[in-house]
Amino acid sequence: MFICAECRREMKCVFNGMAADYGNGVVYNSDVWQCPECNKQMLHTNDYLTHDPDYNLCRYYLTMRTKDSAPGPIHKVLEKFKKSQN
Ligand SMILES: [Zn+2]
Q1: Is residue 17 part of a domain?
Q2: Most buried among 55, 58, 64, 65, using CB within 10 Å?
Q3: pTM (2 decimals)?
């Protein structure tokens, strides 16, 4: 279980199939968890990277910040849609 350190509430899983995208096809599949009090979200990724250059693995991709990016929370989301399940 995940606990929001600020609110001390148990976080809830709100979305499955978000990939943490590090570029060059390197992604980590994850679920999105959210605090019911303050609505802060976090990704719970799996432990192994997947090579997914064509964005076929997950429903959404979150572009990760790099070390050179400005500091702050991760908030850029939902950039890439999987083309189709059909
Ligand atoms: Zn909270």
Answers
A1: yes
A2: 58
A3: 0.73
